[in-house]
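Researcher: Next sequence.
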Amino acid sequence: MPEGFELAVVVPVFNEENILEKNLSFFANACDRIIGAGRWHYVIVDNGSTDTTPAIIDRLLERWPGSIKVLEPEPNYGKALKAGLRQVTTPWAKTIDVDWWDVPFLAWSWSVKDDHDLLIGSKRADPTLNAQRPYRVFLSWGLNSLIQLFFRFPGSDTHGPKLLRMSTMKPILNVCTLARGQFDAEFVLRALRKGLWVCEAPVICREQRPSRNLMVSKILWNVIAFNRLRLILRETSYEDFVKLRRFARPDVLQATPEDLRDDRSGRPV
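Model: Next structure:
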């Protein structure tokens, strides 16, 4: 891989032919502005796509030199995210969903990264920024409430976009065992219990397409995964004080160029 990259943007994708090129082009422009052209690259994880997504990825790799494609044979968000992060060789990694990101969070987290190991974008920290459907808000509330109760998690969300210092977070990654949605929870909880510096800040959450999974199936899977998480972390105690900082949306916007800021609906101002 060419030298000079500071950031790898890890993006799991599954059958995203309708939005993939448009959305990654938009986020690439933001990265060029904030990180610098030639200082970042994509790690695109094809998560078992059956449409034209693989061909689109191949075409996009030519647009951003140094970017790579990772193949995962079946749809599994957690496995895809882990597979992408394991390919990262840059000092920092950014995780996004192809249909959800927050440019001000990218700008802010990059500006304060040197003081933290893991920076989390929380869709629950500021309800004025969350435009999810009510049942999705309820599901997220229920899951994170259980995590707060049973694992003494002091944050508000484990599943948002993240910026990671790879030198301290890769050892955490290597011992994580869960997949699907609960990989994020295990990843964050292990980092906190290791005594790493973690922070969270509110992000805009505005869905671009309907959820692909029924709420009933999500609840069932999360119950099973939650019990597995309890067993996995039973012997992993806190090694130091909890080092969690919380920030507000005005903090985030102060670090963001005015033309890259969003209003509360997620539209560029």
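Model: The chain has two domains: 1-99, 103-260. The longest strand covers residues 40-47.
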